[in-house]
């Protein structure tokens, strides 16, 4: 199964190995690198991502 980085959409390297690429893949999973991990964190902190919430008042009107 091939995983893709949620930030840049590049395929992730195989995590089953002892080489440096595999170690980095495990370290930053599900991201491909530290940069993509930080870009995603910045998006959360800037409120670019939002979790939808249903207000009780709106639900009562229905």
Automatic annotation (TrEMBL):
It comes from the Bacteria. The keyword Protein biosynthesis does not apply. One of its GO terms (biological process) is regulation of DNA-templated transcription. Signal peptide: none annotated. One of its GO terms (molecular function) is zinc ion binding. Binds 1 zinc ion. InterPro entries: DNA_gyrase_inhibitor_YacG, Znf_NHR/GATA. Inhibits all the catalytic activities of DNA gyrase by preventing its interaction with DNA. Acts by binding directly to the C-terminal domain of GyrB, which probably disrupts DNA binding by the gyrase. Interacts with GyrB. Belongs to the DNA gyrase inhibitor YacG family. This is DNA gyrase inhibitor YacG. It comes from Anaerohalosphaera lusitana. The gene is yacG.
């Amino acid at each position: 199964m091939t995983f893709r980085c949620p930030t840049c959409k590049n395929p992730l390297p195989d995590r089953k190995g002892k080489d440096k690429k595999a170690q980095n893949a495990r370290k930053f999973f599900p991201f491909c690198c530290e940069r993509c991990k930080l870009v995603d964190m910045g998006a959360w902190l800037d409120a670019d991502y939002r979790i939808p919430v249903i207000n009780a008042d709106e639900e009562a009107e229905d």
